[in-house]
């Protein structure tokens, strides 16, 4: 596709980008059958054993364009077993086969609600958006970088990049053309070791928070997870408890000793979430999910 963008194409472009920003910034669920995204062409898992899917669409308004939305296994879920973690939106790319003229960059900035600065990989704010042109042979490719303004329901910062083609010196039209748009979430990078540390910190904080609530037998469970039951002599039990469920009595003899025993009133402390059960060792006993 080439030439100037038509009014119908401009409307389709704004609908497409608006839908993507709802997903990326406002945390709306990904619906691959949403007509604003186009017709689903393919959906492929690209990391074995994880939840991420790369969706590819065919948009009628831009039949030759590359339209892709990628989801990743949630980096903010610190569970060690990544097969149990949900997928979250991560990256969107719209790449025109033939760059389109007549698209207002100012209109895109306004409709996507973009800030007048961008943020580098170290989290440092940089004023301005114009990154200039690239080195040869990309000396006509002009890039603009943005941090999107926060939405009401957003939980992850969103970065946006526009790539325009400046007119060549011998181009009589003198038209600037839109070549590509990327929209991505700025997730923190976490290695397995870093996730493990985050899990430990998170569980320690929850254990302290719920410990102050004095959650004893008969109390209502505030969060689904694996809970540790205590008697006055120390921890004797471990159990999966659902949110809203009443905490049960506690074993009077430690679970590691095995066998049946009288159940008595006790106190319950947070141990870990359900996704971590299979990787948790409690008093020498490996829990199984």
List the helices and strands and how they pair.
Blueprint: H1 7-24, E1 39-45, E2 53-59, E3 62-73, E4 87-101, H2 105-111, E5 117-119, E6 125-127, E7 130-133, E8 141-147, E9 158-165, E10 177-185, H3 192-211, E11 225-231, E12 234-241, E13 250-251, E14 263-264, E15 267-272, E16 281-282, E17 285-286
Written account of the structure:
This protein is an alpha+beta fold. It has 2 domains: 7-185, no CATH class; 192-286, no CATH class. 16% of the residues lie in helices and 36% in strands. The chain contains 3 helices and 17 strands. It has helices spanning 7-24, 105-111, 192-211; strands at residues 39-45, 53-59, 62-73, 87-101, 117-119, 125-127, 130-133, 141-147, 158-165, 177-185, 225-231, 234-241, 250-251, 263-264, 267-272, 281-282, 285-286. A hairpin with a 7-residue loop joins strand 1 (39-45) and strand 2 (53-59). It is elongated, with a radius of gyration of 26 Å. The termini are far apart. The mean pLDDT is 91.
Question: What descriptors fit this protein?
Answer:
289 residues, alpha+beta, eight-stranded antiparallel beta sheet, three-stranded antiparallel beta sheet, 3 helices, 16% helix
